[in-house]
Amino acid sequence: MLIPGKRLTQQEIADQLGVSRIPLRDALRRLEVESLVEIDGHKGARVTVLTAEAISEIYEIRIALETICIGHAIANLTEESAAELALDSMASADDTLTPSEAFNRRRDFYERLYKYANRPRMYRIIMQLRNNVDRYHMLADRGHAHFAHTELAEAIVDRDADRATKILIAHISEARDDLVRNMNTSS
Hints:
Elements: E1 7-8, H1 10-17, H2 21-33, E2 37-40, E3 44-47, H3 52-76, H4 79-91, H5 99-115, H6 120-140, H7 146-158, H8 161-186
């Protein structure tokens, strides 16, 4: 994993990946558009560093979009797909998983859930915003809200969009507050 603020040496990365610098530059530009990399013509590329204010803004946008998205997704779920998603949600809260495994399962769960919304642009923006903050959660090595995932699974099975939205807002807010608090204590 690349640490926020780390300088990216194009030649080293190109050598590691076995590619020329031209496609690597294109990839870095795409990462810059997604706010994952900052490129300065004179200093090169660096992994972006988010401030507490930027993180708060990202979570504010996520809450707005994800609550809309989950409503659409739940409306489109069949009984079978709701049951499968609920099992995935509960599996992501398994205490025997490593933090990395739990993180990946939670991410897979939300990707699958939000695809049911049939809102590809919204989905893409949500996943981009999640990418911007997920690296900080991985670095902090924090597992979040097992209880929220169980509650969310129940709301999905019941196809109760209002309850799922309230649970999601609380869960996202808790993740935001924990991340900002962690940033403030490590500064």
